[in-house]
Each structure stands twice: as structure tokens, then as C-alpha cells.
Write a structure and sequence with these properties.
With 779 residues, this protein is mainly α. A seven-stranded mixed sheet has the order 1-2-3-7-4-5-6, sandwiched between helices. α17 packs across α18. It is 56% helix and 5% strand. The chain contains 26 helices and seven strands. 50% of the residues are buried.
């Protein structure tokens, strides 16, 4: 439809909009009885919400924040009596998110304050190699004003402070652009279920009026995380100066100020934790009110404390000399221990919730959230360690004139080779299983085409596509193995760093030759791998900035991660659904109110999730006038298993009862979409039998050339799609007229009820191939 030159934008802006053919533009102004014989097709374009301009590739740097935010929404289904346990689950995830913010800023402090200003500027050989540090070096500047350690640290603190300001700005700006769209008035979202807020119950929390408008929580968390980041920088500068002032012979005034600053840091940290521990999202109503005093005063107060700390550090201390490392080992060790304890506690809480109402297909038996939280912490550690290790190597090279980054970061890098070996074993096992499944599927393909001439290569390709598609269902096991291994290796690295206080190679000196060789090898390989991995990460982001195709790929990966509101981390990439779902809800509500007609809401891939979320937000009277047509849908296969509290069997069954009708199409070769698997008699009514893929095994009159294996794309090319759409439109009568008769010859795009699309495709592309489409045709 969007390739049709007659298509125009009806409403919306450059970020997201509704498109329609020119001859249907005035359809909304006529009652349903005057629409003629054809429904009115529309397309909602939302591609710019996830893969727009090149700057959004920089969101890759926020990946740990996005992953920990996902863990919040992965909690198991629970009964209402477990309200306190549900709140505890959300609290633990928010605390894990706070630890990631502190870790990011601490890594920036390690690079700017410790490695550059403290170690390199304080070492004459390093300062000579890097002339841009000359004015900070006592030898290079002739003991200039900036050469004192406290003043060097104060100047270097501007780097992590600027990073904090950038995070705050991005979070505030993207909230205004993406997440400030309230739902239509009167959206009451009836149903049952709970998310721990203690109000009414709903079939799915996604139907609550405030679910896609969590303004108050995001603002409160943004204030708390911003304050925590500024406090981290202030503590990095102030505690170093306070440690010097506590030595005998220092100035009496500065010695008296040292405990006051320490007390202020502790008090600020307690306030931040208290704010994060306060009650979570309020989804039963719109969050129109803000804690304005808290949102403004908390970041400003921490910024004032940072400014005072910088002034305190700049006070003259002629006898102060920089030597060794700043006390960062203890900070990173405390963060690692805290994260491990939070993940273990989260696993216990998730197990308790899952046990109250077990969902047999829930990923990892309800432990998906803790596993994903562990992955987020590991990603944060790898990124922090990678930056510190690469900067240390850049500053010092191989001369070993600097102490380098904290010992714990080197230990964490050293456990990467064992983890990669484990992953290789897992990949080998998956490959073996895929070969076994392919043999079984090959036999099944031959049984499905007994009258066709045998074609071993064709059969093998079809069987391989089915076997590879089945690997998606094994993702929870792989994640569970990686999460457990990461937790154990992280605990081992923390224990090794604390006991030896040396890097693995030095700690193994005097041990048997085999053990010492293994320690040296893992340390060298780990440092190299973490550096290469970080460089690849940055390179990928840079390529996505310049390459639209790579940017589109990142946009697809972001579809799942940024579907959910920022409930655990305010610096996560913005939630596009907080713009898309209200857009769709407003459009559907105004259409049914203005025309009195019904509509077919069709969605492909991630678009089917948006379609379900928008249907939940409608008033019950409008929801009963909607028919759903989903295809290539991850509603159960991905969202139902990984997010059971919101897309579990009860929620999807309720959605099926509340809409007029629902049909779902899928293929065995599709690695993303699958059946909805509603319990009882609802399942066959919703799920059609798996579509044939390819449409023809050999050459036929309709397919003179070999039919391609479509997998996740081109569902609209299958005759079953037109058939199911026709049946849905017929079921919606008499309010909706029948479809226009299909003309002979090639069918132009847009002659059928169209899908809500992620965006216009490039010339020559087949529109159904656009990923993440969802859509509606109305009449």
C-alpha cells in the first residue's frame, strides 16, 4: 500500500503516521453504509520510532540498561495475595538498575580520574608520551597550579559529570518525544490480573489506563539515577581528598571537613535508595501528577554537593603526591557483590511467584527475569572493564609503568575465555540437535509430498529451515546456562581478586607450571577479547550511524527491548509503544465512534503485539467491534513465555473473548512467529493449521519457478491470508460491507486490507517483507 503513489498521510507526523489511499481519504466522514463494497485500508507507519536517524545507533551503549528493564517485565504470573512479593520483585530489579548506573559512572571515573589524571599525569614517563596531559603533570608543568592531585581530579571529574548530564538530557528529551502520549479518555481497560499496585484487577495489565503513561515513575527514577551518578563522581573526588586530609600533619580545617563530606555522601546515597525503593508504577490511573519537589531538588542537591566536593579537592595540599591506584578496587568489588546478591534474591522471589501459579511454558520456569538481570550486570561489567582496559593499554602500552585498572576488572576479563569455551560446547550441542531434527523433518517433508518427484536438495533445504526455526524454543536453556555460568565465574573472579589482590598471572606465580600457564593465557586472552569485543561494539554502532541497512537491523533488534516502558531504568532506550499504542487506540476509537463501523486489525511480527496492546486499551464496547488477524506473531512463542504476567494464557484467552474474532497464521519455518496456543477449544478457533512453506514443493502451473522458502516474511502472498481476511470481514457483517471483487491480473499493493507497517519500503521491495508490521483495515 505504501508503494502506491496514490497513498497520502492522513494524520500523524514524521515520527509515526497513518497513511491511506487518496480516494479513501474522506471515508471517515461518511457513515459505514456509504463506504461502498470495499473496506477502507489504512497503514500505521512506526519505523522511525525504532530505526530512524543514525544517532539512534548510539543507543547500543545503553544496552545493559535496556536488558535490566526487560527483567522487570519478565516476572512470573502470580495470585493477588502475593502482592508484597510482586512489589519486592520490582524493587530488586530497580535496585539492580541503580547499580548499573553507578557502575557506568564509576567506570567513567576510573578512566578519567584514576588512569588519566591520577596515574598517567602523575607518572613523568606517561605524561611525556601524552603531551595533552602536560599541564597536569608536576614535571611537565613545573609544579603548575593544576598539577596538584586534587585539582587534577577535580578537572577530570568534568568528564563523568558531562556523561551524567547527557544521560539525563537524553532521558528527558526522549520521554517528551516518545512517552508523553496519554490514551483516549474513557479507556478503562476492564479485566482481571494484577501487577502489584493493589488496585482493580485486569485480564492483562496492558489494559490499564496508566500502563502506557508512567510519567511519574520515570521522572522519579530519572531524578534518583541522576543524583546517584553525581554522587558517585563527588565521592570519587571527595574521598580521595579526605583520605589525604586524614593523614597526620594535614591542615586542621580540611581535616574537619573530611568527615562532613563523607557523611553527606552516605546521606545522599540513602536518600537515593529510599526514592528507588518507593512504590513502583501506578497503572490504574494516569500519572498526571509529578513529585516536582523531589524531581527538581534531588538532582540539584547532588550537583551542589559535587560542586562543593570539587572546591574541597582543589584546596592546596603541597605535600600530596599521586601513587598507586585510587581506591577503586573496593568500589567495583562492592558493586559486583551487590549485583550477585540482588540476582540471587530476585531468583528466590521469582521462584516463589512462579510456584503459586505455574505456567508450564514459562521460560526457565519463571526464572527468566533473574537470568536476564544477570546478563545485564555481565554486559555492564564487560563494557566497563573493556573501556578501562583499552584506555590503560593506550596510555601505558606495554611499558608497565602504570598500575593499571583495578585488579577485579582484570580478573573479570580473565573469566571470558572459559565462558566462551562453554558457549562453544553449547553451540556444538545445538548443531548436533539441529542435524538430528533435520533428519526427522526431512522424513516428514517426504511424507507430506508423496506424489511429488523426490528432490533430495529441496527436501534438505525445507527440513533445514524447519530445524533452524526450532532453535528459537531453546533460547531459554541457553540463557539459563550462560546466566548460571556468569554468576559462578563472576563470584570466582571477585573471590580471587579479594584474596590475592593481584592479577591472575601474578597470583599464580609459584604454582605448578600448568596452572601458571593457564592463568597467564586466560589473562592475556581475556584482556585481548574484552578489548576486541568493545571495539567491535563501537564499530557496529558507527557503521549503523552511516549504513541505513545496518541501522534497520539494529531497529529490528530493538523492537522487543524497547516495547516495554522504562519501569526499572530511566536511562534505557525510549519505549516506542508509549507512542504507538496510544496512537493506535486513539485512531481506532475515533474511527468506530465517527463511522459506527467495525474494523479488522491485522499485524505481522512485532506489529501483532502492538495490535493486541492497542486492543486491550480500547473501551469494551469498541473492543467488541474489532477482529484480529495476526501472522508471524510472537505473542505466545516469545511474549507469552518470557513475559507470562502480561501475555500468559489467561491474558490471551481474555483478549480472544473480548474481541469479535481472532485468527492467527504461522509457518513451521518461521523462527519468530508461532501458534497462540490458547487452552481448550479456543486454540483451534484462533490458530489455523501451519501454512505450507514453500507454497509448492516442485514446479507447478501456478509456480513455474521453484517457490521460495518464506519463513517469517511474505505472509500476504499466501492464499490463506486472503481467505482468512475474507472470513473475518464476512463475520463482521452487516456493519462492514463485503470486500471489493478482486480484478484479474497482478494485484496492486493496497487493494486489500492493509497491515499497519513499520514504514515505507524501498523501491523494489515486497511490502509484506517489512519487519514488525501491524495493521488495520476498517469499514
Amino acid at each position: 500500500m505504501l508503494d502506491d503513489p496514490r497513498t497520502v498521510r492522513v494524520t500523524g507526523d514524521d515520527t509515526a503516521a497513518v497513511f491511506r489511499r487518496i480516494d479513501d481519504v474522506d471515508a471517515e466522514e461518511r457513515p459505514a453504509a456509504e463506504h461502498g463494497e470495499a473496506p477502507v485500508p489504512e497503514a500505521y507507519v512506526w519505523c522511525n520510532l525504532t530505526s530512524g536517524n543514525g544517532s539512534r545507533a548510539l543507543w547500543l551503549l545503553l544496552l545493559p540498561f535496556m536488558v535490566v528493564n526487560l527483567a522487570h517485565w519478565m516476572r512470573p504470573t502470580s495470585e493477588g495475595r502475593r502482592l508484597r512479593t510482586v512489589r519486592l520483585y520490582g524493587l530488586l530489579v530497580r535496585l539492580a538498575g541503580l547499580s548499573l548506573t553507578v557502575l557506568l559512572v564509576a567506570a567513567a571515573c576510573e578512566v578519567a580520574l584514576d588512569l588519566a589524571a591520577w596515574q598517567c599525569a602523575g607518572t613523568p614517563a606517561c605524561a611525556e608520551r601524552h603531551t595533552w596531559l602536560g599541564f597536569l603533570s608536576p614535571s611537565g608543568s613545573g609544579d603548575g597550579w593544576w598539577s596538584e592531585p586534587g585539582r587534577r581530579l577535580a578537572l577530570a571529574a568534568l568528564v563523568p559529570s558531562a556523561l551524567t548530564g547527557l544521560l539525563w538530557y537524553l532521558s528527558h528529551r526522549t520521554w517528551s518525544a516518545y512517552e508523553s502520549q496519554p490514551p483516549p479518555p474513557g479507556s478503562d481497560g476492564e479485566g482481571t490480573g494484577t501487577d502489584g499496585d493493589g488496585g482493580e484487577t485486569y485480564h492483562s495489565a496492558l489494559g490499564r489506563p496508566g500502563f502506557w503513561y508512567g510519567r511519574r515513575l520515570v521522572a522519579r527514577l530519572r531524578a534518583a539515577h541522576t543524583a546517584a551518578a553525581f554522587l558517585t563522581v563527588a565521592a570519587a573526588v571527595g574521598t580521595a581528598a579526605a583520605r589525604e586530609d586524614r593523614r597526620p600533619g594535614g591542615p586542621a580545617l580540611l581535616d574537619a571537613l573530611a568527615p562532613l563530606f563523607t557523611l553527606a555522601y552516605v546521606a545522599g546515597a540513602l536518600v537515593v535508595v529510599w526514592v528507588v525503593c518507593r512504590r513502583g508504577r501506578t497503572e490504574n490511573r494516569l500519572d498526571h501528577e509529578l513529585d516536582r519537589a523531589l524531581v527538581r531538588r534531588l538532582p540539584v542537591g547532588s550537583l551542589v554537593l559535587l560542586a562543593l566536593s570539587l572546591v574541597y579537592a582543589c584546596c592546596s595540599r603541597p605535600e600530596w603526591r599521586s601513587a598507586g591506584r585510587l581506591p577503586g578496587d573496593r568500589v567495583f568489588g562492592a558493586l559486583t557483590l551487590t549485583q550477585c546478591l540482588l540476582v540471587v534474591a530476585l531468583a528466590v522471589v521469582a521462584h516463589v511467584l512462579h510456584r503459586t501459579r505455574p505456567h508450564p511454558r514459562a521460560a526457565l520456569r519463571g526464572l527468566a527475569g533473574p537470568a536476564v538481570a544477570m546478563l545485564a550486570c555481565a554486559l555492564g561489567g564487560v563494557m566497563s572493564g573493556g573501556v578501562a582496559q583499552r584506555v590503560s593499554d593506550w596510555l601505558d602500552g606495554t611499558r608497565r609503568t602504570l598500575p593499571g585498572p583495578p585488579v577485579l576488572l582484570t580478573w573479570q576479563a580473565s573469566v571470558i575465555p572459559p565462558l566462551l569455551l562453554l558457549l562453544l560446547v553449547v553451540v556444538a550441542l545445538l548443531a548436533r540437535r539441529t542435524l538430528r531434527v533435520r533428519r526427522a523433518e526431512a522424513a516428514e517433508v517426504e511424507r507430506e509430498h508423496p506424489a511429488e518427484p523426490a528432490d533430495a536438495a529441496r527436501t534438505r533445504r525445507i527440513a533445514t529451515a524447519r530445524a533452524m526455526a526450532g532453535l528459537t524454543d531453546l533460547a531459554p536453556r541457553v540463557l539459563g546456562i550462560v546466566a548460571v555460568a556468569t554468576l559462578l565465574l563472576g563470584a570466582a573472579s571477585l573471590l580471587g581478586a579479594e584474596l590475592t589482590e593481584e592479577v591472575p598471572g601474578d597470583a599464580a606465580e609459584g604454582a605448578p607450571a600448568a596452572l601458571q600457564g593457564a592463568a597467564d593465557t586466560t589473562q592475556a586472552c581475556g584482556s585481548w577479547l574484552i578489548g576486541v569485543g568493545f571495539l567491535l561494539f563501537v564499530t557496529w554502532g558507527r557503521r549503523a550511524y552511516k549504513d541505513p541497512s545496518a541501522r534497520r537491523t539494529i531497529g529490528i533488534l530493538w523492537d522487543v527491548g524497547t516495547f516495554w516502558p522504562r519501569a526499572a531504568h530511566p536511562f534505557a532506550p525510549p519505549c516506542y509503544a508509549e507512542r504507538a499504542v496510544p496512537d493506535l487506540t486513539w485512531r481506532m476509537a475515533t474511527w468506530t465512534r465517527a463511522t459506527g463501523g467495525r474494523l479488522v486489525l491485522s499485524g505481522h511480527s512485532q506489529g501483532s503485539v502492538l495490535a493486541a496492546a492497542a486492543a486491550w486499551q480500547l473501551e469494551p464496547s469498541a473492543r467488541r467491534r474489532v477482529a484480529l488477524l495476526t501472522y508471524g506473531s510472537p505473542l505466545e512463542r516469545l511474549y507469552g513465555r518470557w513475559f507470562p504476567a502480561h501475555f500468559g494464557p489467561a491474558a490471551l484467552s481474555a483478549l480472544h473473548r473480548e474481541v469479535d474474532c481472532w485468527r492467527n497464521l504461522y509457518r513451521l519455518t518461521d523462527p519468530i512467529g508461532g501458534p497462540v496456543r490458547l487452552p481448550g477449544d479456543c486454540g483451534p478457533e484462533v490458530d489455523r493449521a501451519p501454512l505450507k512453506d514453500p507454497l509448492a514443493y516442485g514446479r507447478t502451473a501456478l509456480h513455474p519457478l521453484p517457490a521460495p522458502i518464506l519463513g517469517h516474511s511474505d505472509y500476504q502472498a499466501d492464499p490463506a491470508f486472503a481467505e482468512e481476511r475474507r472470513l473475518l470481514l464476512a463475520r463482521l457483517r452487516p456493519e462492514v460491507p463485503g470486500p471489493r471483487p478482486i480484478e484479474e491480473g497482478p494485484r496492486p499493493v493496497g487493494k486489500t486490507p492493509s497491515a499497519l507497517r513499520r514504514g515505507p519500503v524501498e523501491e523494489g521491495d515486497d511490502p509484506p517483507q517489512a519487519p514488525g508490521s501491524s495493521g488495520r483495515s476498517s469499514g
